[in-house]
């Protein structure tokens, strides 16, 4: 297993593992007096998206993936788990049997795997690229062609502004447009044209907005970009791709019936033609004249985010504050509920599950529990749940975002037992305890004023005890009535609330 020792033991080493649809990447770095030094890079073109048929990951794809993860595990066993982040992207988002595979993958690697949204994938790519280029205040377009999706971001310095993830990638386009029924490559003018036009059509929904926003420099991330840059005509500046060069390369592939093969690994060669078709569409639709290839991408973004979190700079805190502002949340009330909920949670001493930070998730849910009020007071917890389940939250993986939506949806009135049943078996009890803390905190702060008591909370398997100072409840009859109602709601799910 990965080391669970304190961060001080190996405080200079950090790991990012990107389970991409085309390649699995592992990056190991050392922080040396503020400078990030690369210790090791490992890449395996697992091409898990090639095994995605009718939404199901094939056995062969899963075997390739698990074999790769066993190699990764050997290299990182002595590094603390809180200094390692593992994320999955488009193919694992799309696979209907992803949960079964992820259970095996987590056992093999000895670490939790976070599935990120397309929006979050784009943001991490931009952070990785932005950290490795000059801080020149110019606006940038960053494009990353992956195995099953392509990300587009316009940003300035370290701040992404517009983010999109489109369903087009070199692996999926190879299978869909450049392969026959037996899986053999069929690269010709007709098939390349189909791939190119499909990419153009996919980009139509974002093209106008990006062109209207504008940018000064264009950067490309991913193995496809690096390979294409190496194939540019003589005289093209090193590490760049220009419009004439990508057109020449596209025409060359069409004329010769195959992708250029000089010094290109077989797995990359298999999907390169589709990548070239997608890249030509990007140049044409975005009216790009020259693109600079970046050596950084999502995994570098993960490294910088992990280091930032350990140094108490967490983008998720900024996201929560921005979301509060957007939905006109009463921040003073949110903080009162947050403080009370965390004080109650501390008394319950909920065991750490090793997958998500329970105190942080509960605190953020408390900060956001009233976002639905901006829509309607009636059933505002349902509105809040919907917003959190469907909006883009920078820094949050999909499971964390799901948990926020569940807690906000359960923070008042009837507790949906069907929602409880959908929760991970190993997490259900801790999530229910978090929901209880949030519910009680909301009730206790209903006056929307500073809480002048510190109730004592304890719980057994079927009972919850909440004890107050003498006469406090008598002096707060509305709270007493609300707690009695809360007792009825908890009774419906088999819990008895004892108020003392």
TrEMBL record:
One GO term of the biological process aspect: polyphosphate catabolic process
MF-aspect GO terms: exopolyphosphatase activity
Keywords in alphabetical order: Hydrolase
The keyword Amino-acid biosynthesis is annotated on this UniProt entry: no
Residue span(s) of domain Ppx/GppA phosphatase C-terminal: 315-487
Organism annotation: Halioxenophilus aromaticivorans
InterPro entries (UniProt xref): ATPase_NBD (IPR043129), GppA/Ppx_hydrolase (IPR050273), Ppx_GppA_C (IPR048950), Ppx_GppA_N (IPR003695), PyroPPase_GppA_Ppx (IPR030673)
Pfam families: Ppx-GppA, Ppx-GppA_III
Hydrolase keyword on record: yes
Protein known as: Exopolyphosphatase
Domain Ppx/GppA phosphatase N-terminal: 27-307
């Amino acid at each position: 297993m990965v080391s669970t020792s304190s961060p001080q033991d190996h405080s200079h080493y950090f790991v990012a593992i990107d389970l991409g649809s085309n390649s699995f990447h592992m990056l190991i770095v050392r922080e040396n007096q503020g400078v990030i030094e690369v210790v090791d890079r490992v890449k395996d073109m697992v091409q898990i998206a090639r095994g995605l048929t009718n939404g199901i990951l094939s056995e062969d794809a899963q075997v390739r993936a698990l074999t790769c993860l066993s190699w990764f595990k050997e290299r990182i066993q002595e590094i603390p788990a809180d200094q390692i982040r593992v994320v999955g992207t488009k193919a694992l988002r799309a696979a209907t049997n992803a949960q079964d595979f992820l259970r095996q993958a987590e056992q093999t690697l000895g670490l939790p795997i976070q599935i990120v949204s397309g929006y979050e994938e784009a943001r991490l790519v931009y952070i990785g690229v932005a950290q490795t280029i000059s801080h020149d205040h110019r606006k940038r377009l960053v494009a990353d062609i992956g195995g099953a999706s392509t990300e587009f971001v316009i940003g300035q310095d370290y701040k992404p502004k517009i983010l999109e993830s489109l369903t087009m990638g070199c692996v999926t386009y190879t299978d869909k447009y450049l392969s026959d029924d037996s899986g053999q490559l069929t690269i010709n003018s007709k098939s390349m044209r189909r791939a190119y036009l499909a990419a153009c059509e996919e980009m139509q929904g974002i093209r106008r907005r990006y062109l209207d926003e504008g940018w000064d420099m264009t950067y490309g991330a991913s193995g496809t970009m690096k390979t294409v840059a190496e194939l540019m005509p003589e005289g093209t500046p090193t590490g760049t791709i220009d419009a004439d060069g990508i057109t020449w390369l596209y025409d060359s592939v069409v004329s010769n019936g195959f992708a250029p093969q000089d010094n290109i690994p077989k797995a990359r060669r298999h999907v390169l033609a589709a990548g070239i078709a997608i890249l030509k569409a990007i140049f044409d639709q975005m009216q790009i004249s020259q693109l600079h290839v970046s050596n950084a991408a999502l995994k570098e973004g993960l490294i910088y985010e992990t280091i930032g979190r350990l140094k108490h700079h967490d983008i998720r805190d900024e996201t929560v504050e921005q979301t509060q502002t957007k939905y006109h949340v009463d921040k003073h009330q949110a903080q009162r509920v947050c403080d009370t909920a965390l004080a109650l949670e501390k008394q319950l001493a909920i065991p750490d599950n090793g997958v998500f930070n329970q105190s942080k998730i509960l605190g953020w849910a408390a900060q956001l529990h009233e976002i639905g009020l901006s829509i309607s007071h009636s059933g505002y917890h349902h509105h809040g749940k919907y917003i959190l389940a469907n909006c883009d939250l920078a820094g949050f993986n999909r499971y964390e975002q799901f948990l926020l939506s569940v807690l906000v949806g359960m923070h008042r009135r009837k507790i949906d037992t069907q929602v409880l049943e959908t929760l991970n078996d190993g997490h259900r009890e801790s999530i229910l305890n978090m929901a209880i803390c949030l519910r009680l905190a909301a009730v206790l702060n209903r006056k929307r004023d500073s809480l002048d008591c510190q109730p004592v909370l304890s719980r057994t398997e079927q009972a919850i005890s909440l004890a107050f100072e003498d006469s406090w409840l008598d002096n707060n009859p509305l709270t007493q009535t609300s707690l009695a109602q809360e007792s009825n709601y908890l009774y419906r799910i088999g819990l008895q609330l004892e108020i003392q």
